[in-house]
Amino acid sequence: MKKIIKINTKSHNYRIIIEKNSILKEVLKEEKKQKNFIIIDKKLLSLITKLKKNKNFNLIVIQGGEKIKSLKYFEDITNKLLKLKIDRKSCIIAIGGGTIGDLSGFIASTVLRGVRFILVPTTLLSQVDSSIGGKNGVNTSYGKNLVGTFYQPNKVIIDHSILNFLPKKQIISGYAEILKHAIIKNKNFYFWLKKNYKKITKLESKYISTAIIESIKIKAYFVKIDENEILINDNSRAMLNLGHTFGHALESMNNYKRNLSHGEAISIGMCLAMKISCKMNLISDSEYNDFILHLKNVGLPIYDKRIEKNTIYNVMMNDKKNTQNLINLILLKRIGKAFYKRGLTKEKIKSYLIK
Ligand SMILES: NC(=O)c1ccc[n+]([C@@H]2O[C@H](COP(=O)([O-])OP(=O)(O)OC[C@H]3O[C@@H](n4cnc5c(N)ncnc54)[C@H](O)[C@@H]3O)[C@@H](O)[C@H]2O)c1
Ligand SMILES: [Zn+2]
């Protein structure tokens, strides 16, 4: 069944189309409208073969991965587009995971000062999270996502049948972001996830589509209220960053290697945010333990020894949310309600986490 979620932001209104087996049909609709440049993940072989038959699509095939979220790839692909004579009416269609989406969105927002942009996320993580909300960007040696723009797409096409060949590690990585959405905003969704996680991660149609739709609704709620992450209250878009200050630091310390996926890093980050919330008596020991048990059942990591080192706290100082040399964290007031905890020192955070 087709489901459409409308996103109305101050800058732009667009539709997220959620429908099984819809990718080719939706992409082909663009064929005659304008000059199209498709940036697509190398792994999507059958889709590449089908799209190649169409002369009106200029295909740029790249291997998705954190490595491509760099200024070097940004420059190389932008030059390729200019060489292929992209014009201001052209459309960039990104088909791939979050890394292809983030890089392509940044390019779409800057080349010729901005062209039409369509996102076709093909990993669970990108379907439930990164394709919604218009954030894009690349990493630098100073940390993750430090260069980029806010640029809403013109359309998002979500088809969960493309997930069938996604490795299990990637499925549970996406599940971590679904879980994050639940615990920051919707307690009942969290309980539903705990009950149905096996069917969701086995991609049973009814369950995976509900998980995707509910997750998008939560992300859309924050994006609509606070498109450019300006608010500093509990409605701030920053709530979506629960677990990310730790997670991004871990990914950076791991040099973005594949052994620790984004979702896995966020899983560890969420455990740490939960632990601090528990130490502050905001959530109970049993709620904390129950959460950890759920992550273990799903197969997500819950700890990383690097938490015991000082380096991680120094890396965390580069987080975009920080102000005046103090760390601002997103924590839980209770399950289903996140809040902004501002002005923590490195030492204070460490004291919560290390006995
Ligand atoms: N912009 C945002 O708001 C936002 C939000 C969350 C995460 N992110 C970013 O998203 C990125 C992670 O995204 P990701 O997990 O999708 O990573 P990814 O793009 O690296 O994809 C993961 C792997 O899956 C492969 N792949 C993609 N689609 C496939 C398919 N259908 N079948 C088989 N393999 C497939 C890719 O080749 C890659 O090896 C991170 O850089 C993170 O910072 C951005
Ligand atoms: Zn994330």
How would you describe this structure in keywords?
binds zinc ion; 2 domains; 13 helices; seven-stranded mixed beta sheet; globular; alpha/beta; two-stranded antiparallel ribbon; binds nicotinamide-adenine-dinucleotide; 355 residues; Rossmann fold; Dehydroquinate synthase-like, alpha domain
Walk me through this protein's architecture.
This protein has 355 residues and is an alpha/beta fold. It folds into two domains: 3-159, Rossmann fold; 168-353, Dehydroquinate synthase-like - alpha domain (Dehydroquinate synthase-like, alpha domain), CATH 1.20.1090.10. The chain is 45% helix and 18% strand. The chain has 13 helices and eleven strands. The protein has helices spanning 23-28, 45-52, 71-83, 98-110, 124-130, 168-185, 187-201, 205-225, 244-253, 262-279, 285-298, 310-316, 346-353; strands at residues 3-8, 13-18, 36-41, 57-62, 91-96, 116-121, 138-140, 143-147, 155-158, 327-334, 337-344. The strands form three sheets. A seven-stranded mixed β-sheet has the order 1-2-9-6-5-3-4, sandwiched between helices. The protein has a two-stranded antiparallel sheet with strand order 7-8. Strand 10 and strand 11 form a beta hairpin. Helix 6 (168-185) runs antiparallel to helix 7 (187-201), helix 9 packs across helix 10 and helix 10 runs antiparallel to helix 11 (285-298). The longest helix is centred in the middle third of the chain and has 21 residues, at 205-225. The protein is globular. It starts with a strand and ends with a helix. The model has no long low-confidence stretch (mean pLDDT 95). The structure holds nicotinamide-adenine-dinucleotide (NAD) and zinc ion.
